[in-house]
Amino acid sequence: MAENEEKGTVKQPSADPDYRYKYLGFEVKPGKIGDLFKSDSEKESWIKRMLDKRKQGAKLREHNSLEVPRVASYEKIVLTITSIILVLSLFLPWFSGYKEIVIESKPTTQEVTGGTGTEAGTTDEHGFSSISAVQKRQEIRREYYSMSALGALISFGDVGGKVFSSGFALMLTGLFILIYMLACIGLAVMTLKALYGFKGDPDSFALNLKKILKWNWILVAIWGFCLILSSFGADYSFNPAGGLAQLGKSYGIGTYIGILGYGFYLALAAGIMNAVKASEI
User: Fold this and answer.
1) Same domain for 159 and 200?
2) How many whole angstroms separate alpha carbon 24 and alpha carbon 207?
3) In a domain, 170, yes or no
């Protein structure tokens, strides 16, 4: 019964619908707002400007957000620089570490004089004995090594053979790092081609660039996925003794973070900048 009563009632509008077409100061409260123009001549000049714009086919007013380009000229310069960095980073150290080398210094003889003679030393005429001891000192020296992404690709047969014959986590990491290297080249070429080789209106240009730039997130995804993989650990197929200290006895998170050089992270930063721009377009 209550439902029928509710269906039978007609909801009254909260306000007169005609008021939506009225403006404060004109019809609702006339006389509260003064004239928009200082004089009739000023009014005529504005009307003339509007009529001239209509004759020229202009449909938008000046200085509106619709006429602001999605990709500004300075943003094109930034995207060009980041794309070049993606390629140049391949020539910088992507992998770095150090070896610890133990160097033994020349032995030094230390003489200790005691009050009584012993069998290990010699006794003088006054009954004092002297014992000679040989002391060796060790010095640990670090030798730093680095390898660029290009160098890793050139020596892929040696380095890749060791990586891809190790544990499963390290094998997958090596595969994704290889994809990462190739993606740096591919994304840079595609971005530069979209910036300077695309023919079309500004909106089509921006949408095409957005479609390409969003693929830069793959660099972040690879870095994060390899970080997760390293948490599972893996055994080496080779003896890491005498190698880089960052390798440790087995592969893990410490190895993954410690062995990556600044060239890798420079490419990652450039990729993030490109990907963020895709979100803004």
Assistant:
1) yes
2) 41
3) yes
CB of 163 within 8 A of CB of 240?
Answer: no
Looking at residue 67, its amino acid is E
| Mean per-residue pLDDT, 37-60 | 80
pLDDT level of residue 123 (50, 70, 90 thresholds): low
Confidence of residue 128 (pLDDT cuts 50, 70, 90): low
Question: Of 31-40, 166-175, 267-276, where does mean pLDDT reach its minimum?
Answer: 31-40
Same domain, 131 and 150: no
Same domain for 193 and 271: yes
Look up the domain containing 33 and give its range.
24-58
| Within a domain: 8 | no
Same domain as 113, residue 88: no
Q: What integer best gives the mean pLDDT of the chain?
A: 80
Asked whether the whole model's pTM tops 0.70, one would answer no
Ordered strands of the 122-123 beta sheet: 108-114, 129-135, 122-123
203 and 240 in a single domain? The answer is: yes
User: Which phi and psi (to 5°) does residue 222 adopt?
Assistant: -65, -45
Closest CA to 264 of 160, 145, 150, 126: 150
The alpha-helical segments, DSSP class H, found in 70-216 are 73-88, 149-154, 161-164, 168-196, 202-213
> What are the tens digits of pLDDT across the range 158-191?
888 888 889 999 999 999 999 999 999 999 999 9
Whether residue 238 is contained in a domain is answered as yes
Same domain, residue pair 228 and 188: yes
| 16, part of any domain | no
**CB neighbourhood size of 249 (10 A):** 10
End-to-end Cα spacing for the chain: 56
For the chain, the residue count is 281
